[in-house]
Design goal:
The complex is a heterodimer of chains A (about 160) and B (about 775).
Chain A (H helix, E strand, L loop, with lengths): L3 E7 L2 E7 L5 H7 L18 E4 L2 E4 L12 E3 L12 H8 L9 H14 L5 H7 L11 H15 L4
Parallel strand pairs in A: 1-5
Antiparallel strand pairs in A: 1-2, 3-4, 3-5
Chain B lengths: L16 H5 L15 E7 L5 E7 L1 H5 L3 E5 L34 E2 L5 E7 L2 H10 L1 E6 L6 H4 L15 E6 L7 H7 L2 E8 L12 E6 L5 E4 L5 H12 L6 E4 L16 H11 L3 E4 L2 H7 L5 E10 L5 E11 L7 H14 L6 E8 L14 H19 L3 H8 L18 H12 L1 H6 L3 E2 L2 E11 L12 E7 L5 E5 L8 H13 L6 E5 L16 H28 L6 E4 L2 E4 L6 E3 H9 L10 E6 L8 E11 L5 E11 L6 H21 L29 E6 L22 H13 L10 H14 L4
Parallel strand pairs in B: 1-12, 10-11, 14-15, 19-20, 26-27
Antiparallel strand pairs in B: 1-5, 2-4, 2-6, 3-5, 7-15, 8-13, 9-10, 9-12, 13-14, 16-17, 17-25, 18-19, 18-24, 21-22, 22-23, 25-26
Helix pairs in contact in B: 9-10, 10-18, 14-15, 15-16, 17-18
Classes of the chains: A alpha+beta (about 160), B alpha+beta (about 775).
Chain lengths: ~160, ~775
């Protein structure tokens, strides 16, 4: 396959990487040591690999890297700064919303996209927004609790 | 010792929460080593075939391929992938029938060859170049067919495909007499689902041979020390030459109680002389790893008109798949559960474990007890209907009390079933809801319930041996060094809570060092909710010992008798003179850097082996809505009344209940394992074809914590995680009956089955 150099902005940093047309965004992220994004199904059915591309929730396992050159890519690593967690991450920690944690990065990124679009969702709206993110451990109850609580927290302006 | 608990019982964040929330947590799939190769496994496309020849030449000659293995390259050592043969008191009930790479293809997905190459594309190409010549044999997929004369023989030692017959070890009385004494006898055959585990992290393993010849394994295995020993035996190397590391684990639910990819990954690494990683795709994980057994269970109950149970019998045909793995222990747990829940003077059970050319089965959450309760709690509801008694009333008549034997025959320290039932019945408004027949257009509403008792560890069936080590830093914080397998159930955090409570310091003062056979303490591994009850007690013993050292030293520093001292919130003080005290940090600093030559690194070991396995109890109530036109079921509400002893951390316990409910929703309604009956191929191999519940499938849930501390447990705690699917399944199925009058005896209760059952019922009622 034909190699070329692609420019990628990931979590605010610029990376120039040798890529071939068939590699996925997930594989690119792995190449660059961003191991927070997880792959559970590889065909876009479970949401574990969700990242934000120009703010839009995107299934990195099913997106070609070549298609997202020069776009703003945000992964789970980009939400926190050292030990300063994003309110969503902190809410997941505080509300018991994490068990094995494998679905967590994709779940949080999807929740972020949801709250960016709808800052005051009802519980039902949160459930619908997260319906494409599978979890085998939690039964989703505390995940929904965490997202709703996080929305409240962010509404109060405490960032 | 401690009057008021300050850490135990609190909703502190789970261990590793920040790591997991920020993407920093590393799982096996995230391990990268220099020069690491990608391994892939070639599996059989046939459900049953002899392997006549494996030609590796073309694969070996492909540039970038560094190892190709077939049957002749591997140790010809039979093993059982599950670790019970190392610890069971009756190891004759285990069955070694598996090779590292199979001598014969026994299911679609059976391991035939393996390759390791420089990248994934090359490894995939190499697999395609391995030429296998098969002699295809007839296959059999149904256990009833497999037992018939003339059926294809899957393992030579079992000519009728019955791998083992098991008789229930604690029969009572005379069941035939008991049935004769009954006014009502119900018998039913139930077939439970071959549920796929579908943990989110795909199966994976990394193996590396160092320059000193030592093998390091990164694996999600649940019993690192036992699995390491097994691997050593398979490879014929000393146990001490293997280091087994457990990173974060993306779910297991019992599956990784068996060896999975470790033997083949280790073999590839040894052949290639380089690190190898194998990571299954979702489809490979679905098709090649252990599933639940299908239990074809014929249960029979005899009941008097006054509700007394006079006899119980269960006969199991266990579709155990192509290899034996955990068939005997799940069957035993099933029989123990079926016969052990209610008081009954006449009971008996037996099981035949059968080979079929289907996926190997394992020990998945509930471990036979889930399946047993589907049958038993169904029979109880049916009997109640027959004699015209409220199903709760019938249960209350027959439940056991403290002191009576549990599902393992051990006298129970506590038994709160009656309280849980009554609490739940009142909360959900049982009487009123049962009396009303609710309809709304095409919707019908029903309410059902079920109860259960489960276990806190696999005592008395096997050795259970736990150790923990605590060592203080000079600043009053401490390391807790323990092999506390955490698949998400937060065993690590709850152990840290115990340590902090006993030591009188804060939760955040404990740092857990976990999961490395070179440095963390020996542990027989996690399963059957052994963790908190057993590992927690070892941690407690270590903490008590360390606390003693701390108080001795503090006593010397203060000039006070150690017995007069207490520790609360990082401060050691005299009970009789509270002003007289020191911070824990002052004590540890003085002990560590001591200029009088009295050095002491305050540290201690604790060990534990149980003499009990106190059952957690639950009463579960389910409300459902069934549409009579589409036969779709919506679970509206689940009320779970839980007694798992002291609640160490409410978030953790609720998390286990809520997660268990989700898995039960899948088992009961949405997760249909579909196998092609002609080809033996698993067709439901990804998340589109095999539907695990999403947010939209979850009912409204409520958990009531009923804490009855059990004397033998750490702070009175019992296990919980294993048990939380067990009573939910039958509660849902009983609710469906209440709604539309049909009992489904073949899970999952899909709309097709419910529709067919409703149609059959209205035909027999004479309605059109």
């Amino acid at each position: 396959m034909k190699k070329e150099i692609g420019s990628f902005r990931i979590n605010g940093r610029l990376f120039e990487v040798v890529i071939t047309p068939e590699i996925t965004l997930y594989e690119l992220l792995r190449e660059l040591q961003f191991t927070g994004t997880k792959r559970s199904c590889g065909v876009g059915e479970c949401g574990s690999c969700t990242v934000l591309v120009d703010g839009i929730p995107t299934l990195s396992c099913s997106t070609l890297a070549i298609v997202v050159r020069n776009k703003e890519i945000l992964t789970i690593e980009g939400l926190s700064e050292g030990s300063r967690l994003h309110p969503l991450q902190q809410a997941f920690v505080d509300h018991g919303a994490i068990q094995c944690g494998f679905c967590t990065p994709g779940m949080i990124m999807m929740a972020k996209a949801l709250l960016d679009e709808n800052p005051h969702p009802t519980r039902d709206e949160v459930k619908e927004g997260l319906a494409g993110n599978l979890c085998r451990c939690t039964g989703y109850v505390k995940i929904v609790d965490a997202v709703v609580a996080s929305a409240e927290q962010m509404k109060k302006g405490e960032k | 010792m401690v009057r008021q608990l300050s850490v135990v019982g609190r909703r502190v964040p789970r261990w590793g929460a920040q790591e997991k929330a920020t993407g920093a947590a590393r799982y096996v799939v995230d391990i990268e080593l220099p020069g690491m190769l990608i391994g892939k496994v070639l599996t059989s496309p046939h459900p049953h075939a002899r392997i006549l020849k494996v030609d590796k030449t073309r694969a070996e000659n492909l540039p970038g391929v560094e190892a190709v293995l077939s049957f002749e390259d591997i140790p010809q050592r039979l093993y059982t992938p599950n670790r019970h043969d190392l610890i069971l008191y009756n190891p004759e009930n285990e069955c070694k029938d598996m090779y590292l790479l199979s001598d014969k293809a026994r299911f679609v997905g059976d391991r035939i060859a393996a390759v390791a190459a420089v990248d994934e594309v090359t490894a995939q190409r190499a697999l395609e170049l391995v030429e296998v010549t098969y002699e295809v044999l007839p296959a059999v997929f149904d256990p009833m067919e497999a037992m018939k004369p003339g059926a294809p023989v899957i393992h030579d030692f079992a000519p009728n495909n019955i791998s083992m017959h098991l008789d229930f070890p604690r029969p009572r009385g005379d069941v035939e007499k008991g049935f004769r004494e009954a006014d009502c006898v119900i018998e039913e055959t139930f077939r439970t689902s071959k549920q796929l585990v579908s943990q989110l992290e795909p199966s994976s393993c990394v193996a590396h041979v160092g320059p000193d010849g030592r093998l390091t394994i990164w694996s999600p295995g649940q019993s690192a020390f036992l699995q390491r020993r097994k691997l050593a035996e398979i490879l014929d190397i000393p146990v001490g030459m293997i280091r087994w590391i457990t990173p974060h684990v993306g779910g297991s639910f019992g599956k990784y109680g068996s060896l999975n990819l470790e033997p083949v990954c280790a073999a590839l690494a040894r052949k290639a002389g380089k690190a190898v990683k194998i990571e299954y795709s979702r489809e490979e994980d679905s098709c090649r790893t252990e599933t639940r057994q299908t239990f074809v269970a014929t249960g029979k109950i005899g009941v008097k008109r006054d509700g007394t149970i006079t006899a119980l019998r269960e006969k199991l045909i266990v579709d155990g798949g192509a290899y034996f793995s955990r068939n005997s222990t799940t069957s035993k747990v099933n029989m123990g559960g079926f016969t052990g829940l209610y008081r009954c003077p006449n009971l008996d059970a037996e099981a035949d474990c059968v080979y079929t050319n289907t996926l190997t089965t394992g020990g998945i959450r509930g471990y036979g007890n889930s399946e047993a309760m589907c049958v038993l709690e169904h029979l109880v509801d049916r009997a109640a209907r027959e004699i015209g008694m409220d199903p709760i009333e019938l249960r209350l008549k027959n439940i056991k009390k403290a002191g009576e034997p549990d599902n393992k025959g051990i006298p129970m320290e506590t038994c709160t079933l009656e309280t849980l039932i009554k609490l739940g019945a009142e909360k959900i408004g049982w009487g009123k809801k049962r009396a009303q027949k609710k309809e709304n257009g095409t919707k019908r509403y029903g309410i059902g319930m079920a109860i259960m008792m489960d276990v806190s560890g696999a005592h008395p069936g096997s050795i259970q041996h736990r150790n923990a080590y605590i060592k203080f830093n000079e600043d009053g914080t401490a390391s807790l060094i323990v092999t506390a397998y955490d698949m998400g159930q937060n065993l690590t955090g709850t152990c840290a809570q115990i340590a902090a409570e006993v030591l009188g310091i804060r939760y955040e003062d404990i740092h857990v060092v976990n999961g490395d056979t070179d440095s963390t303490m020996f542990d027989t591994g996690i399963g059957a909710s052994a963790g908190l009850y057993q590992v927690g007690q070892a941690v407690m013993n270590a903490a008590l010992e360390a606390r003693g050292q701390l108080l001795d030293r503090a006593g010397k520093m203060l000039g006070v008798a150690a017995e007069d001292l207490e520790i609360r919130d990082r401060r050691v003080s005299s009970r009789s003179d509270p002003q007289r005290g020191l911070s824990v940090a002052e004590v540890t600093m003085q002990a560590t850097y001591n200029f009088q030559g009295e050095h002491l690194n305050i540290s201690a070991k604790g060990s534990f082996s149980p003499k009990q396995s106190p059952p957690p109890f639950a009463a579960v109530f389910a409300e459902v809505e069934v549409d009579v036109e589409t036969a779709e079921v919506k679970i509206l509400r689940i009320l779970y009344v839980n007694d798992s002893g002291r609640v160490m951390n409410p978030d953790t316990v609720e998390g286990q209940v809520e997660g268990g409910i989700a898995q039960a929703v899948g088992f009961c309604l949405t997760e249909d394992t579909v196998m092609n009956k002609a080809s033996g191929v698993l067709e439901s191999d990804n998340f589109t074809t095999y539907k695990i519940p999403s947010t939209l499938d979850m009912p409204e849930t409520e958990v009531i914590h009923y804490e009855e501390p059990v004397p033998s447990g750490p702070f009175g705690a019992k296990g919980v995680g294993h048990s939380t699917t067990v009573a939910v399944n039958p509660a849902i199925l009983n609710a469906i009956y209440d709604a539309v009058g049909v009992f489904i005896t073949d899970t999952p209760a899909t709309p097709e089955k419910i529709f067919a059952a409703m149609k059959k019922q209205s035909a027999s009622n004479g309605a059109v």
